[in-house]
Amino acid sequence: NAGKIKIFTIGEEGKEQIIHIAKGGEIVGFRAMFSGESYKVAASTLEESNICYIAKKDFLNLVDTNATLRNGIMKELSRELADRATFITNMAQKSVRERLASSLLILDDIYTDEMINLTREDLANFVGTATETLIRLLRDLKDENLIKTHARKIEILDKEGLLKVAGS
To answer: Model confidence at 29, in pLDDT bands (50, 70, 90)?
Structure first.
């Protein structure tokens, strides 16, 4: 309902990989209801949040009886599938610098009218790199006047410049 949560998985070596950051109003966890399998990811709040729970039976009943909800869920599943394909392609084919720039642009959309507010560790886990590498690359982007940092918060100064770095 309100706040932001990270959706993540833990790799074989115990490293966290953030695969999505959900903001207020998003529905999370519903794919497992349709597949009948356990949800293979975890979630954790990033800030004070208000989380609503809908029982599986009630949710599936709503989907069966409400065409608008069913169509919305299908659109969301399609969007998520496209987003995951882009995410996998970026992780496999882009440099860490390009992934960081792309991630900052994604996060800027999530955080809308506020600065990006993630720990360096969470940001590194979102980008898919080591925290030390992330800190060095943030410093480079800062030196290029693409971003500005305020303690742990990040302000985007030049979206077009970040788009060029991201290869978009």
So the answer is: confident
